[in-house]
Amino acid sequence: MTPEIYLSLVLFAFTTSITPGPNNMMLLSSGVNFGMRRTIPHMVGIELGFASVLVAVGLGLGALFKTVPTLYLVLKVAGGLYLLWIAWSIGMSRSLGDGKSTGKPMTLLAAAAFQWVNPKAWVMAVSAMAAFADPNNLVFSVLVVSFTFVVLALPCQGGWAAFGALMREWLSHPVRLKWFNITMAVLLVLSLWPMLR
Asked: What is the pTM of this model?
């Protein structure tokens, strides 16, 4: 991979990782509702899950979806339904998690598994591998793309969670929190639209 191509990969990974999408909306909400420390497993789960999706796509799963488009459609529908359920849960939340409440942040395993039904993750993975994987050096280039995404995405997504954690005190007022959670739920649903078309 030439330095110019790698710079393009870095810009692509940064831009797609920092822009609003399902993961970032959930991390912002989790930062508000549970604080930064309790959101870290969610962030790490996203990175591990997305890296596994990137590797799978790079090593051939993307070609399977082109051959059997129905599988991709099923994945998009399942992901969309799961995101709607998450949006509903966020929108109905009315209290900040303090360690004693029944609400819990997404676990590392759940966040990793979610990447397999996250429509934005699949669009990003297929686009990244189509643009940056080198068929002549496939395994190495797939690993470089995956590693680059993980390294750049962690601080990007951490910023969303940290911003949410900083807003915790202001949102400790029940009416503000209610409207924040409803807004996050609506934004999460709206983030689906470009991916489900």
From this structure: 0.74
